[in-house]
Amino acid sequence: MRVIVASRYNMKYSVTEITSMFELGGGTGFVGRALTQLLRSRGHEVTAVSRHPGKDRITWDELSRLGLPPCEGAVNLAGENVLNPLRRWSESFRQEVVASRVETTKALAKAIAEAEHPPHSWVLVTGVGYYRPSHTTKYTENSPGGDFDFFSRLVTRWEAAARIPDQATRQVVVRSGVVLGREGGAIAQMLWPFRLGLGGPIASGLQPFPWIHVTDLAGIITHALEHEGVSGILNGVAPSAVTTSNKDFAQALGSALRRPAVLPLPGFVVSAVFGSERSVMLLEGQRVVPKRTLESSYHFAFPDLPSALRDILT
Questions:
Q1: Among the listed residues 204, 291, 280, 201, the one whose alpha carbon sits nearest the alpha carbon of residue 242
Q2: What pLDDT, in 10s, does the model give residues 208-266?
Q3: How deeply is 110 buried, as exposed, middle or buried, from its count of CB atoms within 10 A (0-12, 13-18, 19+)?
């Protein structure tokens, strides 16, 4: 199988093996590297769509000029890091955050719609910020959302940009939680304070913490690409994440590192660094259930936090 994440892969099936080509948008980032490794280990070919040319890559400009290369699947993972503490939450940065998600998705969707032989599957990864923060409400893929703040409305626009009229291409959206892994994501930013015994919950720590191991996020995307019966919205969170709070995560990380995790990061500091609009992503959270993901017969490699952290930290 060939997949393009807003990278690329080819797909041929036989009784004994799967060889496909996929295109991956954002395929050179943290999740893209994990996805590429998994797909190649399963016999697929992958091409990344990137800002920079290179081996097994095409650029966004080439995608726009030349169209989508022949492939069986396309994935978009592209998106500017919203929680970059070095970037002020200005209007220009807001526009970058939107364009890096919505415009890249539009570019891939347009290329798919105009392809002479469109891919069989098209997967977009968005976020659980679609759902309204709540300490009590449990959200499944059928729950409402997408209309209450900047980030929820961004997810609505992002997912709308992915829609294509071609019924020949199966369309899947994975709403991802906080991605944990040893090569990047949330753990990479937290590790040194926790190793020094300076870690702890953010503010009260009572806010839900919807998380997923990067192996499982890559696994869900691969599952969606490979299985014809999978379509629509899938929540990309671990099954136990629905009961995990930020304090639970901090204590589990401290325990795995054999360090105390009792020094809370005050909410006013978070707001000062990230601004009131962005700080909501850290000070609040959603209780998300991967209902349709489990019903699709995806089996999580890391369904609980202790096993996920053991894998990441050892």
A1: 291
A2: 999 999 999 999 999 999 999 999 999 999 999 999 999 999 999 999 999 999 999 99
A3: middle
Mapping DSSP onto H, E and C, the string for the chain reads CEEEEECCEEEEECCCCEEEEEEEECCCCHHHHHHHHHHHHCCCEEEEEECCCCCCEEEHHHHHHHCCCCCCEEEECCCCCCCCCCCCCCHHHHHHHHHHHHHHHHHHHHHHHHCCCCCCEEEEEEEHHHCCCCCCCEECCCCCCCCCCHHHHHHHHHHHHHCCCCCCCEEEEEEECEEEECCEHHHHHHHHHHHCCCCCCECCCCCECCEEEHHHHHHHHHHHHHCCCCCEEEEECCHHHHHCEHHHHHHHHHHHHCCCCCCCECHHHHHHHHHHHHHHHHHCCCEECCHHHHHCCCCCCCCCHHHHHHHHHC
CA distance 45 to 149: 39
